[in-house]
Write a structure and sequence with these properties.
Layout (H helix, E strand, L loop, with lengths): L1 E7 L19 E5 L2 E7 L2 H4 L1 H7 L3 H19 L5 E2 L5 E2 L2 H10 L1 H11 L2 E10 L2 H6 L12 H35 L3 E4 L5 H4 L4 E11 L3 H15 L5 E9 L20
Antiparallel strand pairs: 1-3, 1-4, 1-5, 2-3, 6-8, 6-9, 7-8
Amino acid sequence: MRYVYAVCRPLDAPLAADLTGVGGVPPRQLAHEGLIAVVGPVPERDFAEEPLRRHLEDLDWLSDTARAHQRVIAALTSVTCPLPLRLATVFRDDSGVRAMLEEGADRFRRVLDRIDGCVEWGVKVHLESEESSRERPAEGAPSKPLSGRDYLRQRRSRQTAQDESWQRAEAFAQALHEKLSRRADDSRLHAPQNSSLSKAPGRNILNAAYLVPRAHSEEFVELVDHTKDEEGDSSGLRVELTGPWAAYSFTADDETGADDAGRSR
């Protein structure tokens, strides 16, 4: 079977000779009408419909496959601007891959035109955990309430401080997003991450992706770093920058959804 990592334009530079993908097999290029599908052979015993469904519930297998998939996408991103397909996009043979390229040609070209010359940067803003805030009494307040009335007063004071902190964090995140969006060709706001799942300390306020021309990436990174220095730890906010990545957040086609090709067939 054929595992498809991404669709891209013809490469200007070769991929590293020692690059391997899923199953430890080097990827190859399959050309069709000006488009390239980056593919690799995978065994039917693992990637036919039924075994693949079982494997997708195996976290170890899924993690190994995702790392191999990302390794190929990262290599492609260093030499071109690929359109990554979903994990475990497989076809029976080369003819199935060509049919996918034929069917989605218009969509792929639109998206490739839009992301050409760009990479994705991720920016997150976290507010320190509310538990940490609760552990610190307000300045000048006694460490323990002297009476029930004092307890209620301290509780109201902490709640007011938390509300104000949350409002400041939201205002900061919105202003930062607007500032970064002006330096990007496009942006996407993702749902905030659940800290219990991401294991990141604090509460996620902003979870955004930015499509930035490679030529302007250094300026974009400097802008985020400057924001980190300005804000500092004393505010209880943490700004996190990740990337550069392939343009994962910008591969959907506004008209019909270019990522529809990322289904097993």
